[in-house]
Amino acid sequence: MKKIKLAIVSPYPPSKGTLNEYAYHLVESFKNKESIEELIIITDTLPEGEEYPKFVGNAKLTIHQVWNFNSIWNVLKIRKALVTLKADLVLYNIQFLSFGDKKIPAALGLLTPLVSRLSGIPSVVLLHNIMETVDLKSAGITGNPILKWVYNFSGSLMTRILLQANMVTVTMAKYVQILEEKYKATNVALVPHGSFELPAIPDFEKEQDVDRIMTFGKFGTYKKVGNMIEAILKVRKKLNRRIEIVIAGTDNPNVKGYLGSIADQYKDVEDLKFTGYVAEEDVPDLFNNSTAVLFDYTSTTGSSGVLHQAGCFGKAVILPKIGDLKELVEEEGYVGEFFKPGDVNGMADCVERLLVDKERRIQLGQMNYTAAASLPLDDIAEWYGLHFENVLKDRRKPRVSVESQPLYNISLEM
Fold first, then answer.
1. Residue 401: alpha-carbon gap to chain centroid
2. What is the 3-state secondary structure (H, E, C) of 140-197?
3. What's the pLDDT at 255?
4. Which segments of the chain belong to CATH 3.40.50.2000?
5. What sign does the dihedral 27-105-100-414 (CA atoms) show?
6. Class assignment of domain 4-194+377-409?
7. What is the CATH number assigned to the segment(s) 211-373?
8. What pLDDT shows up at residue 412?
9. What is the DSSP letter of 112?
10. What is the distance of C-alpha 158 from the center of its chain?
11. How confident is the model at residue 222 (pLDDT cuts 50, 70, 90)?
């Protein structure tokens, strides 16, 4: 395969857009591949006063601020950049709300892979979730039955349009099955999420200065923190010991002010810390200084980057066995203490077991590290290289067509 000029369309740190951390680690893996002559990051515009890093001494890697969240012009701006920069192939690192949380900008942005393919630039979509597995109510989108139908209908239509890319990759085997069975897609491939850069083997015996339970993400929809706080307060009282509660991350864009309301509600709770946005360079300390990582989720919307990160740092996890988390645990070998979603007492029991049983905590951390080490992102980048080669060899139109199946085949379930 000749060396290629690869463009990646995605948020990228310090942008706080969804999937920015994944893009960072994917770029770190791609930039060392001999098959890539030039790596172009096409990302969103930062607020005034912020700037993207300068890659001193690495001429093959450049960043271009091209699009804006919730802009209706993103499809045209991205196409122009791809043509101007003469990309050989473009990888879209996206989910359904990557280009906006308003209906029209979000939908128009998802046309971009099709437009780039029609412009002569082969497109590969890395789709992190699919509408068929998203609980719209828990995700904070809507609980109205009519609006749920509208979103499901629109989601199915946009999925068909995304499948007009030369290739669509997904991170869960279940997603491949759904896309092939429901949409008759023949251009879908499974490429696991992969684990971010693995640090040295952790010191599993290391004693923390204080017991510290941490959660990490964007909160307010299906990711909550209230039950976590209540559960740890129960464990504090029962064990009569200090346990620090660390809530790392920010509000979900759909529920602005959520963490502020939680901070007000629990303002009298000692050792409750809100970190705010965590910069990429601060992530190792966040995990290394934690005793365990807790997932207070009511549903899921894709493969969990946080679970992969916990594995990279050899941490035991506490999580509900639901949806994509359940699939991920079964497919990739992660382990943890499990509770029923919304069960504060069950969550408290899990926290207590890990704090009291050090051997169990170490064992889970070791097994999660092994699971993470089995699928490093460097290997995932190699998989993509093979798919890129096949796409460039075969630029025929994908076999899924928006016209090939009448829209009334889309599920009308409310």
1. 28
2. CCCCCHHHHHHHHHHHHHHHHHHCCCCEEEECCHHHHHHHHHHHCCCCEEECCCCECC
3. 84
4. 4-194+377-409, 211-373
5. negative
6. alpha beta
7. 3.40.50.2000
8. 32
9. H
10. 19
11. confident
